[in-house]
Amino acid sequence: MNTPHPDADTPRDLVGIGVGPSNLSLAALAHPLAEIDAVFYEQRPRFDWHPGLLLDGARIQVPFLADLVTLADPTSPWTFLNYLKTHHRLYPFYFAERFHIQRAEYDAYCRWVADQLPGLHFRHQVDSVRWNPERDVFEVDYTQLDTAGEAEALGRTHTRNVVIGIGTTPHIPDPLRPLADAPGVPVLHADDYLTHRDTLLTAGHITVVGSGQSGAEVFLDLLRHRPTGHERLHWIGRTEAFAPMEYSKLGLEHFTPDYTRYFHALPENVRDRLLAGQWQLHKGIDADTLAAIHDELYRRTLHGGWPDTVLTPGVTVRTAGRISTTQIELHLEHTQQNTRSRLTTDAVILATGHREHTLDRILAGLDPYIRRDNSERPRIDAHFRLVLDPSITATGCNVHVQNAERHTHGVGAPDLGLAAWRSATILNALTEKETYPLPTRTAFTTFGLEQPQPSPRVPTARQAPTLTPLVDRR
């Protein structure tokens, strides 16, 4: 639904760039706030959440309470439970006793919200964000796309605040990047798996690269669709084991506002070191998925013999090359053994994760105003605002980011369970009041000897973020 702005010369309060779960959460929580005039632009034709990985039975790894709004406002009309009630499915869900819902159901729930919220403009590609010092507003330029994805019209919106929630992009390792775009042997990212599954299943030998959750789910799905004794599947990954995700109760407290505040207050070099060692908090595999894979493999041994599969962790792909129109060769290295080998395969599925979108293209016009850390990454304050030159922030205008702040806010940045809290934090800053009261404590763990506490008051929109000395780079 598109709502025209009543006065094109009047700046909006908020322009959201991207409509993924993060900004959809923000739009849902902003919807009842009469004082917030907001619009959101998304280049895709509709809401889609990793459609190529909506495998039958695959579940999201957070409880259903981690929907778009509940952990900030359980009375919102946009809760998952209200979605079930609206679709007359509340009792079936009650008896299903499922705390973790299927990924396809979460996608359908988000689309239900997106289809009803005003101010969401799909097929609108944001091209740039600039600062207009004469009007003290941001200028957001966009291209309206037709059904074929071609430019149809250009537009510009003025706004006092911008929230960037453009999500992540599929990561393809450098050794395989030339092959991914070449015709012939299918080499594709797991994000496109379902779209090409029928073609992949005709391949004689299939290799899955990546030892995280998506790699495990793709391998399991292939296993279930390949005949016993003729699986011809090879699953490799860089990690030292096909390891389960950290899912202990206290371990999960790394995905709380308490830990986010603790992490943000640490020095930059400490944050970077921590992130490198926390892969199992977010890159491990759900224990049920590992169990299902083992069950499938074990079932194939009941009448003797072993399945035609190879599962090898601790392996990296050094280089790769096409050896014919139907086959490629992967050059592998085992990090622990310090050995190398070659693997010939007919198809490759890259379950190699995602990377945060670089903000450089959209924010190129703001580059002179952005304060950066020692690694030239944007500095982001506790309220998810880019640290900009005071000539901008002193006017009450800010740029917030969602799911682009892992380097400043930790492993919870992309976590669905923190989306509502982060959106509420942003809206509290925009409205200059505690529009959504947030808890002061969320974890039993005290992560430091001096635990950072929430600010006793909401920062006003015209209060510039506190600038730490450049040598601190926090």
TrEMBL record:
<comment type="similarity">
    <text>Belongs to the lysine N(6)-hydroxylase/L-ornithine N(5)-oxygenase family.</text>
</comment>
<dbReference type="Pfam" id="PF13434">
    <property type="entry name" value="Lys_Orn_oxgnase"/>
</dbReference>
<dbReference type="InterPro" id="IPR025700">
    <property type="entry name" value="Lys/Orn_oxygenase"/>
</dbReference>
<feature type="region of interest" description="Disordered">
    <location>
        <begin position="449"/>
        <end position="474"/>
    </location>
</feature>
<dbReference type="InterPro" id="IPR036188">
    <property type="entry name" value="FAD/NAD-bd_sf"/>
</dbReference>
<comment type="pathway">
    <text>Siderophore biosynthesis.</text>
</comment>
<keyword id="KW-0521">NADP</keyword>
<keyword id="KW-0274">FAD</keyword>
<dbReference type="GO" id="GO:0047091">
    <property type="term" value="F:L-lysine 6-monooxygenase (NADPH) activity"/>
</dbReference>
<keyword id="KW-0503">Monooxygenase</keyword>
<protein>
    <recommendedName>
        <fullName>L-lysine N6-monooxygenase MbtG</fullName>
        <ecNumber>1.14.13.59</ecNumber>
    </recommendedName>
</protein>
<keyword id="KW-0285">Flavoprotein</keyword>
<keyword id="KW-0560">Oxidoreductase</keyword>
